[in-house]
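Database export, one record per block. Field names are fixed; values are copied verbatim from the stored entry.
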Amino acid sequence: MMNFANYIKEIGRGMHGARDLSIADAEQLYAAMLDGGVPELELGAIAIALRMKTESVPELIGFYSAVNARLHRLEAPPGKPQPVVIPSYNGTRKQPNLMPLIAFLLERFGVPVLMHGTLDGGGRSTSAYVLRELGVLPCATLGQAQQALDAGHIAFVPTAVLSPGLAGLLALRSRLGVRNSAHTLAKLVNPFGGEGVRLVGVTHPDYLQKLREFFLATGESALLMRGTEGEAFANPRKRPRIEFHEAGMCTVLFEEERMATAIDTCDIDVKATAAWIRKALKGAVPLPLPIVNQLACCLYASHYTADFNQAKAIVALEACGMATA
């Protein structure tokens, strides 16, 4: 039987006194957490201790290994670009949630898109709500998700369908009042195994560096950037630095740049956001340049094209064509 007090002694001594777990210990501990093997009192203590200490990169690697070993799998559709995996767990409350716009633009190019996240917005504008307004309902089973992907449609999958254990740890927020390590790990989920590229948007600069080190160490594929309120779409008013991580290498595709003119997209209301996205997809309103730039990054990272300059040219023509439609 695991002695959870020993783990808590290591990680629970405060920001300056706490010690980091090894990769092996971190994996063993998180496996028990995912499997429901940690009593409630100890589980809460571990979650808060990790939040106060913050996770080290080796701990994130160990935690991720435990999640990955228990993740339900999907198959990348054959003969298509690499799937783009989009985590959506934050929602927005100050700006429109344009995460679904990225998904629909990728669908237009024939790139498989898997979005996953929570269904409850907690008062925020979530991707699940916006997608519902646009006719995309959550997939209740892995079979439904696979059918949507194979048919060339966006698949939105609730976390519990991919990883019940991770969904349970995410739910701790309602009881503890704060986020925990599961909210970071959810952004790293990839049910396609060695295939697919993630869109990862983070809020805090410290986590940009941590996840940069994580991807360099693991060789996992991702587009990493500062998110818009934590969501992984480029801020229409300020394009973030976008990094492409693949096979342990990091390439900066775009540097951060503030747009000369703020783009008034739409109200943050879910229905208004969905209506604006419809207009954007029809070319009735222009696509924000940072979104166009991010789309080019996605086409390149998904191996839609092997040349980034070609990807930029393709999306520029698409945006121009939509604007004149």
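Remark 1: DSSP finds 16 helices and nine strands in the chain.
Remark 2: The domain at 4-69 is CATH 1.20.970.10 (Transferase, Pyrimidine Nucleoside Phosphorylase; Chain A, domain 3).
End of record.
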